[in-house]
TrEMBL record:
SUPFAM superfamilies: ACT-like, Glyceraldehyde-3-phosphate dehydrogenase-like, C-terminal domain, NAD(P)-binding Rossmann-fold domains
Protein's name according to its UniProt entry: Homoserine dehydrogenase
Superkingdom per UniProt: Bacteria
NADP listed as a keyword: yes
Family the UniProt entry places it in: Belongs to the homoserine dehydrogenase family.
Domain ACT: 351-424
Alphabetized InterPro entries for the sequence: ACT-like_dom_sf, ACT_dom, Asp/hSer_DH_NAD-bd, HDH, HDH_cat, HDH_CS, NAD(P)-bd_dom_sf
Enzyme Commission code(s) on record: 1.1.1.3
GO MF, one example: homoserine dehydrogenase activity
Species name: Nonomuraea salmonea
Length: 431
């Protein structure tokens, strides 16, 4: 049978593994698709660069636009990342009726609408399983397997770099700086780790997850985002003493009335009995809670060349089958048109540590301020004496706006020397 011709954009960590797997698994892939897959061209920035995989020099080109617009190309795989030129190249391919497989979470979160509209206009497929959680089959279950269910919540660890750092801080007592340096030495963190440690990477993934879960368009800028750079070894030790562990979580939750949903990424304390607490090093794990299916958990390697390439190849087989059958996969589903409610309306719990004056009446005044803002206290304990006196408070659930107003009020009390730390608490309702 006539082969399906594939153009690959990028030959870095992921692209080189895509080529390797296409070569090694060629007979199996052909059997699964129904036709051979032929690598017809590879777009790279520099032709003479040494690569992790052997590539026929005749396939290499620096003219990516000419490659994706060639008449004989059937499928384009994009693994170069970033917004441009990826967006222009993908839309050019889709507008000419080609199918596209991409791992580009940043582009999908910023301008996924443009890509989906181009796919619809060109009658091609747009698949992007590799954009979230590496090798973990997560997006296809949300997009297809749970299409007949009502997803209520998605909660998970979707960034391996931050999970590695927090895990090392928890298991060894290391500082954030030391744990980050170790992650960089091992290749888990980039030389510039900003996208990971400030939560940008996780926020893009949360936007994609929320869009699929709630059938509404979500952009990365709508995701509330906090990173882990302010987490200290003291914070981690305090959480540990209470039976909690700190994780950077992506949380997408439908409101009780079903008319809106929240999307947020931030550090949170979760009980050590929670399944996510045992997710170690650079692994990812995501809980999905659906009305009929109940609680589902997806776990595995969330990054790396081979795991991500595995997800790319899965999509490649799917779009290849569709192309031979003359059909298309699922289109973007935005029929619900739900709104993203602001973080201030989100109901959360908080762990608060206060450095306070060691004198009578301190607890009463602090409790009065919490009550003023309709934030009830679940537990409170006093630690230390004199200059080391500290109140540690865990609240019941309240809106984030009420919690923020309470923190501002605490900073103005003459008996509070400092708000030592504020950490959200999650996961008690999942088990």
């Amino acid at each position: 049978m006539k082969p399906l011709k594939v153009a690959l954009l990028g030959c870095g960590v992921v692209g080189s593994q895509v080529i390797r797997l296409m070569h090694e698994q060629a007979p199996d892939l052909a059997a699964r698709v129904g036709a051979p897959l032929e690598l017809a061209g590879v777009a790279v920035r520099r032709l003479g660069r040494k690569r992790d995989v052997e590539v026929d020099p005749a396939l290499l080109t620096t003219d990516a636009e000419s490659l994706v617009t060639r008449d004989d190309i059937d499928i384009v795989i994009e693994v170069i990342g970033g917004i441009e030129p990826a967006r222009s190249l993908i839309t050019a391919a889709l507008s000419r009726g080609k199918s596209v497989v991409t791992a580009n979470k940043a582009l999908l979160a910023e301008d996924g609408a443009t890509l989906h509209e181009a796919a619809r206009a060109g009658n091609g497929d747009l698949y992007f399983e590799a954009s979230v959680a590496g090798a973990i089959p997560l997006l296809r279950p949300l997009r297809e397997s749970l299409a007949g269910d009502h997803v209520k919540r998605v909660l998970g660890i979707v960034n391996g770099t931050t999970n590695y750092i927090l895990d090392k801080m928890d298991s060894t007592g290391a500082s954030f700086t030391d744990a980050l340096e170790e992650a960089q030495t091992l290749g888990y963190a980039e030389a510039d780790p900003t996208a990971d440690v400030e939560g940008f990477d996780a926020a893009a993934k949360a936007a994609i997850l929320a869009g699929l879960a709630f059938h509404s368009r979500v952009r990365a800028e709508e995701v509330h985002r906090e990173g882990i750079t302010e987490i200290t070894a003291t914070d981690v030790a305090s959480a540990k003493a209470m039976g909690y562990v700190i994780k950077l979580l992506a949380i997408c939750a439908r409101s009780d009335d079903g008319r809106s949903f929240g999307v947020r990424v931030h550090p949170a304390m979760i009980p050590r009995s929670h399944p996510l607490a045992g997710v170690r090093e650079a692994y990812n794990a995501v809980f999905v809670e659906a009305e009929s299916a109940g609680q589902l958990m997806f776990y595995g390697k969330g990054a790396g060349g081979a795991p991500t390439a595995s997800a790319v190849l899965g999509d490649l087989v799917a779009v290849g089958r569709n192309r031979l059958a003359g059909t298309r996969g699922p289109e973007e589903s935005t029929y619900a048109e739900l709104t993203v409610h602001p973080m201030g309306e989100t109901v959360t719990r908080c762990h608060v540590a206060l450095d306070v004056a060691d004198k009578p009446g301190v607890l009463a005044r602090v409790a009065e301020l919490f009550s003023k803002h309709d934030v009830s206290i679940q537990t409170v304990r006093q630690e230390g004496r004199g200059d080391d006196a500290q109140l540690v408070i865990v609240t019941h659930r309240a809106t984030d706006a009420a919690l923020s107003a309470t923190m501002e009020g605490l900073r103005e009390l003459d008996i509070v020397r400092a708000v030592a730390s504020v950490m959200r608490v999650e996961g008690d309702e999942v088990g």
